[in-house]
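Fold it.
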Amino acid sequence: MQLSVGTDSTWSLRTMVGAKIAELPIDLHVFSLQCASCKSVLRSLSPTGLVPLLEDGSLRLHDSLAILEYLNELSDGKLYPTDQGKRALSRSLCAEMHAGFSALRQTMPFTLADVSPLTAFSPAQTADIARVTTLFASAEGPFYQGEKPTAVDAFYAVLAYRLQHYGVRLQGEAGQYQQQLVAWSFLQEALAQLTSTAACCHP
């Protein structure tokens, strides 16, 4: 099973962290998205020409949420809680991250390069940050639903990092969860892989 990801790709990071939670053997291939030739190779591999892309035999999955659902099935449910209600909530929160927080995405582009901290925020940014604060403050432990990481943590760890990278440190319980995610070894390992193993033009 091969997972193709790309540099500076938040959706790639989410699948990388999810794969670590699932504890499945995966051949990781990191593409440099700054390379025109790499993008050409991706167009030949992926139905959308984008990352992430999971290949398992003849199966090709090109959406991060679908990839995590597939990894969850292969790992006998390691990506979601065993409780039915918590499992449903997890999927709802992942879907919210998948489709929401557009103001933060547009105005805080993800990058591992140094950026200047933001000191002023638009109403849309403020609304998104308020929602993140409410959500993060609801974490039940070091991870969102207790002691074990789930897909929710895989999806929101990247947002926690993005906010901190732009100087947004949440306060109180929300801040504790943010810092837990930023320092999380699974996220830090994935970030390191994106910067140290990027290949150019070799699928």
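The chain has nine helices and five strands.
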